[in-house]
Design a protein that fits this description.
heterodimer, A: mainly beta, seven-stranded mixed beta sheet, four-stranded antiparallel beta sheet, about 0% helix, about 55% strand, B: mainly beta, six-stranded mixed beta sheet, globular
Chain lengths: ~110, ~110
């Protein structure tokens, strides 16, 4: 009964490829997020969605496109992968805003070679 | 610029010793404050949070944190560390007018037997 689940857990791919990471939450939360954790463990928000509507879109290359088919899912599609995209990507959800608590998935370690 | 500072990149303690991890923030008003823990290869788990009221908050796993407005600090403490506490600890804030969870750079805790 994983609350926030991401697939895949590991992803190794070549430069220039297009890949997707999927995220699902079964907590009934309205808000979902994508965070990027770099090699120095620094965590930075990329996107947030509330009830399928984009709320936060940080300065992220437009090669990154989030998609929320419903409020329980927030997928991340990345086009034309670059070496610098290698990182751990975390999905998270919260009831309606971060004024409560964010629940994180296990992360997806993306390695671009 | 709004920021969260964790001055200690790496801390090593002996099992049974007390622990204090430092966190300072720079915001115009008191934000919402959080401490998260990340075990190796895992997602982030919330230890505790402060929104208002009593400035000493209790969390899970025997952790507590104290909010000090005068020092813009929210330090995490534990009276007796266990070997299983070895992990990366992140302080985070949410500004009350936004929905962004801003993380500090993290403190890696190592515990020796």
């Amino acid at each position: 009964d994983t609350a926030v689940s991401q697939t895949p857990k590991y992803l190794v791919t070549q430069m220039g490829n297009d890949k997707s990471i999927k995220c699902e939450q079964n907590l009934g939360h309205d808000t979902m997020y994508w965070y990027k954790q770099d090699s120095k463990k620094f965590l930075k928000i990329m996107f947030s969605y509330n009830n399928k509507e984009l709320i936060i879109n940080e300065t992220v290359p437009n090669r990154f496109s989030p998609k929320s088919p419903d409020k329980a899912h927030l997928n991340l599609h990345i086009n034309s992968l670059e070496l610098g995209d290698s990182a751990v990507y975390f999905c998270a959800s919260s009831p309606y805003s971060l004024n409560t608590e964010a629940f994180f998935g296990q992360g997806t370690r993306l390695t671009v070679v | 610029a709004q920021s969260v500072t964790q001055p200690d990149i790496h801390i090593t303690v002996s099992e049974g010793a007390s622990l204090e991890l430092r966190c300072n923030y720079s915001y115009g008003a008191t934000p919402y404050l959080f401490w998260y823990v990340q075990s190796p290869g895992q997602g982030l788990q919330l230890l505790l949070k402060y929104f208002s009221g009593d400035t000493l908050v209790q969390g899970i796993k025997g952790f507590e944190a104290e909010f000090k407005r005068s020092q813009s600090s929210f330090n995490l403490r534990k009276p007796s560390v266990h070997w299983s506490d070895a992990a990366e600890y992140f302080c985070a804030v949410v500004h009350r007018n936004t929905d962004k969870l801003i993380f500090g750079t993290g403190t890696r805790l190592q515990v020796f037997p």
